[in-house]
Design goal:
The chain is of the alpha+beta class and 794 residues long. It is built from 21 helices and 26 strands.
């Protein structure tokens, strides 16, 4: 009989094998695909951490939850507490713990209601991923099946990590990391056993047992877990006694709010919903925020409501401190990240031009640069002081931030080349062609960001420092010039070394040595307050209309950039780089450790004999010379042309020559002579300057040295004559300079005599539109001729 039954079964299976195989295949396929490829599609908070992993700031997830991005690591204390409380056979079962299920069934029957679910952590993870599913027997079976499939796809540690990152901890707090910061104000790695046990029991029933209600029940469950942990040997009785005395935390703590603008910047840069491990150093960040807040208390009395600072480590370009703005209130646009906002550069780019001209052999630090009234194709730069020095050493012009010398230097260097250099140095805001900016590029006609500009200063310092680390003649690498780095994981690839860089080490060194000087007259008022024992190369800048105050400082270890102003562009009196931004700069340097100055790159220099008066390579006419170590490119600088050889009478009062005096009654002298216009302004500032003596009355001037020069208009100038408020036409003021203060000058316009001047050579005329010719003659018969055009008023 039994054999008959077996035969019938075999016959049935043979008849139905295809159908059975299909059903089995479908079940296996359903089992394979029952687990989604992505368990959680929840939005995450964007989290910013410092270089040690400490929380700086975070943004709440889109669904209003504090849910930090998953972390692969689960701290050991929390792991042990969680497994002992929830799933002590976690590492041995395959997703379903039969013994726990049987225990839960027995407890539920005895209680007459559901008091235990018997779910493993794998089943709980599946339930968390299947949000809003009804909790019934069928769903329990589905969870069990999916839990076994989960164990097939993920390792135990991955499952534990996912559970830890998505478990609810009460209120809008999801995940262990968010809970640690909300309840204890520190990382999960710093939890005590009592804190770990508290957080381990919270996800079991966060709606009923949390910090807001049923606190005694929460503490009771925590203490039971602590006793179990001690019983299995995780800590001794003394540690247990201390742990039991720890209080349950109170109301959730506010999350740290440091470097919030960097968090926003990283979010905009594509790191939304990620854990961002930054290069920020928390102690520096916190102190920098305090410094800016203290200065804001001073600045707001002048209705200056925004300030920003960026602190960089020179060696790496790492961002150590990022204060994008001060907490001045939403009405004052505190949310604007000024570090990334393009602003008028003022004078802050002048050191780059100074270094570039030295690097190209067009300048030495002491070379005289003209500082006289200047109009170039309608552009008339003005110094902050509205005065002129006639001629000024290049280093002093940089320190005093004189605009006219800088414009004349840029004209010689060419603004097209400077535009290209700035882009190579890292300025990303020069989006227009070079002709769009022209010569205004050096006086604030372009915009820059604190991010780019501070990064460029740091790159210069890095190039100078690394000059000593590269062997042989191949001393530079283009990667020394790079943008600031704020992600700890970023690393720059070193490329093959090259003979040259964008700027040489020697030109950078002399630029920093110049900027190290504390003395800041002219625009740089208030410099006397910044005397310091620390060597810092610093430069300030002020934009037109007192809208932006800049200060950037650098030494061998750090580069700091500071901006002060109003984000809406409102200008304020005394909003200058030195008065508003420099005090912040120096206070920030005072909080930084381990500062150093630069080594002199002697191998990149050469000894030159330099004329002490002109700053040019000396000739045999230079009476006083200095032997200096300068960039090798100084060999291309033109020799001194300011010293001329003259023959004077024996009393030294007049010039003579062989046509009017016998050789034995003449003495040869070398005389420092400036062009007439430069001399006109220079002699009023320098009491030691002696104009060359005039020729004796009986000696005609046989030299090519002109005694006079036109200040305005310049040759081929275009002149616009505006109308006054009453509708009448204003006049054009002609101006000239003469070496002899007692000379009289006669003015002619279009062959018509218009007047004469004595000592002060200024004359007003009312020319008609069109081209004109100006002829100027002095009382010794010397003359100059200049053509100019008056623009039609229509």
């Amino acid at each position: 009989m039994q054999g008959v039954r077996q035969g019938r079964l075999v016959k049935f299976l043979r008849a139905q094998w295809r159908w059975l195989t299909t059903v089995l295949a479908m079940l296996l396929m359903a089992y394979y695909f029952i687990l989604p490829s992505v368990l959680f599609s929840d939005p995450y908070s964007t989290v910013l951490e410092d270089r040690q992993g400490n929380l700086l700031s975070a943004s709440i997830a889109k669904d209003g939850q504090w849910r930090f991005p998953p972390s692969p690591e689960v701290p050991d204390k929390f792991k042990q507490a969680l497994l002992l409380f929830e799933d002590k056979r976690f590492y041995t079962h395959t997703g379903v713990d039969i013994r726990s299920m049987a225990r839960a069934l027995r407890q539920n029957i005895q209680a007459g209601k559901v008091v235990s679910g018997g779910s493993t952590l794998s089943m709980q993870l599946i339930r968390l991923s299947r949000k809003n599913k009804t909790r019934n027997l069928w769903q329990k079976i589905v969870e069990m099946v999916m839990a076994t499939r989960l164990e097939w796809s993920y390792s135990k540690n991955e499952i534990l990590s996912m559970y830890t990152s998505h478990a609810p901890f009460g209120g809008n707090v999801v995940g262990l990391e968010a809970a640690c910061w909300r309840y204890y104000g520190r990382t999960s790695q710093e939890l005590s056993w009592a804190e770990a046990a508290t957080l381990a029991v919270l996800p079991n029933n966060p709606g009923m047992i949390n910090l807001a209600r049923n606190r005694p029940l929460l503490k009771e469950k925590r203490n039971r877990l602590l006793k179990r942990l001690a019983a299995v040997g995780h800590f001794d009785s003394l540690a247990l006694s201390l742990a039991l005395q720890e209080e349950i935390p109170g109301a959730p703590l506010p999350l740290p709010r440091h470097a919030t603008h960097l968090l926003d910047f990283a979010t905009r840069s594509g790191y939304r919903q990620q854990r961002i491990v930054s290069t920020i150093q928390t102690d520096i960040q916190v102190r920098a925020e305090q410094v800016l807040w203290q200065h804001y208390e001073r600045l707001k009395s002048n209705q200056i409501h925004n300030a920003a600072a960026l602190i960089l480590e020179v060696a790496t370009g790492n961002v150590l401190g990022y204060v994008g703005n001060v907490p001045s209130g939403h009405d004052h646009q505190e949310q604007v990240d000024v570090i990334q906002a393009p602003r008028s550069t003022g004078s802050i780019l002048k050191p780059f031009l100074f270094a570039a001209m030295m690097d190209e052999g067009k300048l030495t630090p002491g070379m005289l640069v003209a500082d006289v009234p200047t109009i170039i194709q309608g552009f008339a730069p003005q110094n902050f002081s509205k005065t002129f020095d006639g001629a000024v050493p290049a280093r002093e012009a940089l320190i005093r931030s004189l605009n006219i010398p800088a414009v004349l230097e840029l004209r010689e260097y060419r603004y097209e080349k400077f535009h290209s250099l700035l882009k190579n140095l890292g300025l990303t805001t020069l989006t227009q062609p070079a002709d769009h900016y022209g010569l205004t590029l050096i006086t604030g006609g372009a915009e820059g960001t604190l991010w780019d500009i501070t990064g460029a200063y740091a790159s210069m310092a890095r190039t100078l420092n690394r000059y000593f680390t590269y062997p042989g003649k191949r001393r530079y690498t283009p990667t020394d010039f790079h943008a600031p780095v704020y992600l700890l994981a970023d690393s720059l690839q070193v490329v093959d070394l090259q003979e040259n860089s964008f700027l040489s080490a020697s030109s950078i060194y002399h630029t920093f040595e110049t900027l190290k000087e504390v003395y800041r007259p002219g625009e740089e008022t208030g410099w006397q307050h910044f005397e310091t024992s620390k060597k810092i190369a610093w430069k300030t800048g002020t934009s037109f209309g007192f809208r932006d105050g800049w200060a950037v400082g650098v030494n061998g270890a750090y580069a700091i950039g500071v901006w002060v102003g109003n984000a809406d562009g409102e200008g304020r009196p005394h909003l200058t780089g030195t008065e508003a931004a420099a005090p912040i700069l120096f206070d920030l340097f005072s909080i930084l450790p381990g500062q150093q100055w630069f080594h002199q790159p002697v191998a990149d220099m050469q000894t030159f004999a330099i004329c002490s008066h002109s700053g040019h390579p000396a000739t045999n006419l230079c009476e006083k010379t200095d032997t200096l170590l300068l960039p090798r490119s100084t060999a291309f600088v033109s020799a001194c042309s300011y010293h001329k050889r003259f023959f004077l009478t024996t009393d030294g009062k007049h010039r003579v020559h062989s046509n009017c005096e016998s050789p034995e009654k003449m003495k040869a002298v070398s005389w420092f002579v400036l062009p007439p216009v430069q001399e006109y302004y220079f002699k009023s500032k320098s009491m030691s300057y002696q104009p060359v003596p005039p020729y004796r009355y009986d000696c005609e001037n046989p030299t090519a040295i002109s005694s006079m020069e036109l200040i305005y208009p310049r040759p081929s100038a275009s002149v616009f004559v505006p109308r006054l408020l009453d509708g009448t036409e204003s006049s054009v003021v002609l101006q000239a300079a003469h070496r002899n203060s007692e000379s009289r000058m006669y003015w002619h316009v279009d062959d018509t005599y218009v007047g004469s001047t004595y000592r002060t050579h200024k004359l007003s005329i009312h020319p008609s539109p069109g081209k004109h010719m100006l002829v100027l003659v002095d009382d010794s018969g010397e003359s100059i001729q200049v053509n100019f055009t008056v623009i039609d008023r229509q």
